Amino acid sequence: MGLSIGQVAERTGLSVHALRFYEREGLLADPVRRESNGRRVYSEDDVDWLAMCIKFRSSGMPLDTIRRYTELVRQGSGNELDRLDLLRSHQDYITAQLEDLQESLRVITHKVSIYEEHVAAGTASCLWTDASSTEGPARASSA
Amino acid sequence: MGLSIGQVAERTGLSVHALRFYEREGLLADPVRRESNGRRVYSEDDVDWLAMCIKFRSSGMPLDTIRRYTELVRQGSGNELDRLDLLRSHQDYITAQLEDLQESLRVITHKVSIYEEHVAAGTASCLWTDASSTEGPARASSA
DNA sequence: TTAAAAGCTAGAGTGTTGTCTAGGTCAAGT
DNA sequence: ACTTGACCTAGACAACACTCTAGCTTTTAA
């Protein structure tokens, strides 16, 4: 039931350094329990919480915001609207990221397909000399 | 036809600092032309190239990789397969990001909906006291 | 019993991506 | 003449999120 920092590092993929760092930064709902010798003992709940933090992080939430969220949870009930606000705005942020990424993917896929055509053509004979229509400044190498 | 650094900053959304920085970092296909007085003169092609760099950046390509790509383009024809490689691997990277983000969105949307239920219930009467089933360590506040 | 492995704290160091400052030039307007 | 504003270079500084080091204690395995 109680996990050492090393075990938690293994399970979460965070380094032990990062785990201590996150704790110092106030990202854990409660300051991790300690054994008599001072060593950290993590519960499954701690690991779940960390997993959530990792999801937040990987979707671009800054540590600062995770800390604010953590504080709200730590304060207990009464601020659910604030938590909801924070979550919704992160939701919006993710949605915006998704749209940007999809657009980026569209653009790069287009570039890839142009290069593929060129390369396919070039496999037969090396007749083309620049990436015109894919690279801006390389275009026609002129005014 | 020739744009000042300030105009390019306006058009691209990059700061003039960032524009000079990108140039120093070798992210521009050719070192920007200068007026007699040393001031930069950007062409539309430069702006197009910058727009592409911005797309690369915003989809998580490090400056380092953009520089490598730029170098390939600068070298001229003959390395199209290398460019294609680089582009394809970034394409894969974006795809992976999209999947991660979608998963994150799923998780956070679930949390949001749980909070919404709680808050809706609480609007009538403040009967619930914690975020159990949404927050790990806050759960039942016990062993 | 002793050596390796794992943990601890405090704090320094790092990589990335810019941003800002200092000190100066140049052109235009008043 | 003088101020304002855009531009220049070189280089210092900064935010973010870790990562690593030093110096120490404790646990575990041989």
Automatic annotation (TrEMBL), chains A, B:
Residue ranges annotated for the HTH merR-type domain, each copy included: 1-72
Alphabetized CDD domains for the sequence: HTH_YyaN
Entry keyword DNA-binding: yes
This protein's UniProt keywords: DNA-binding
Matching InterPro entries: DNA-bd_dom_put_sf, MerR-type_HTH_dom, MerR_fam
GO molecular function: DNA binding; DNA-binding transcription factor activity
Pfam families in the cross-refs: MerR_1 (PF13411)
Superkingdom in the source lineage: Bacteria
The name this protein goes by in its record: MerR family transcriptional regulator
